[in-house]
Specification:
alpha/beta, Rossmann fold, four-stranded antiparallel sheet, 16% strand
Amino acid sequence: MQISKKKIFYICLSLILFIAINLLLSFILMPSVGSADKMWSEYRKKDKLDMVITGTSLCYSCLDCIVIDNQLGINSYNMSTKAQELNNSYEAIEAAINDYGVKRAVLTFSYLNLVEYMNIRAETTFFRGKISGLSFGKKIKEMAAFSFSERHFSSPESINLLFPWVFTHVKFRPKTIYNNVMEKLGKRKTSYDALYAETNTPSKSILNYNKIGNENSKTTYVGIKFNNGQVSDSAFDELRKIIALCKKNNVDLILVNPPKPAFDVLCYGDEYYELYDLINDFAKAQGVDYYDFCLSKPQLFENSEKYYKDFEHMNFYGQQAFSKSFANFLSLRDSGINVDELFYDQTEFEASVNEISCIYFDENIAGEKEIELNLHAYTGSNVNVLYEVLVKAPDASDFTTIQNYSKNNKITYMPEKHGNYIIRVNAKTPESQNDFDRYYEKKIYY
């Protein structure tokens, strides 16, 4: 059966229109640039590199290579990208070895990066940034390899890779889309220009520690568990691959957990240190060094609550301070000093926290019965905490105190009627002259 020329024409026309619409939607909706795009484009401009740093947004928010390079007289580059997976960190280190012959690699990660979780969107955007500088033919070859790989073949992204606007797009708002188009046309600066430019200036905002844990806030994961204290087998496999790559090429690999606010260690209790021991023992067995800068002593890095813009990302002030400390750390390590002594163990760290980092409570409501509140203060082992509890009932204009300052951290409250209640807990130390040192509010429906 022959297909008429007319049908062939319409088939070709339909394909051309389909491709044209896809390209148009990609241009309009895909962000003008992401952390992966900007990272790879700036990476290709480098003439020389001695050290590469990889990781997630935690890493590019805490380490400024300009500060490090000026202090050590080296050439380094931060290849971190948003939600970077360990297999992508491998690719970044491999590229830096092959392209520049780097002799040191710093791999940063937090414990949450090591649980069983596959961020396909992050992987895909990393991949698209990596191939953005290749010829058309090489792009097609790399895209085919990505889509048909064992890791990606069964996922929707093996197809969506051809339609990137489906999984990576700006908000569907006229103003947002217009600004995105203007950025692509070069008539407006992008949000990532500062991250990889010579003036590396992340946000100067400071975390409000009284908003931590708010269900309407994206500031923290207080109370989350680390996959029941387990690191996924795939994470260990990826770490082994990175270690093997570095050993094969005589690259000094350093594993690093970036610093975070004190509460982001304390809220996990013993589980945090169990995971530290697990990773540290693994690193020693593999013959590499691991350092958790959440546990660094002040003579190495003096952490401050003013150094964070959210529950884990550093702001400009934290980045500049930690970059200087990290450069000093590398210098001390290279000189042969035992840098392990510059980090706390669990007992030492918990004794070192001398303020209330944050407070939080969870509630239990059983039918028509009272509301039970369990109050938590994340602070050091030598700090005593007093709690004041207030309630604003439905239609009330003011709070009513249901517990004056007391050590009691379990409260039972019987509401008079159904509705939305705002519970506020104030906390302070017995020595404090303030009305409160920290507070936390939550709306509860009864």
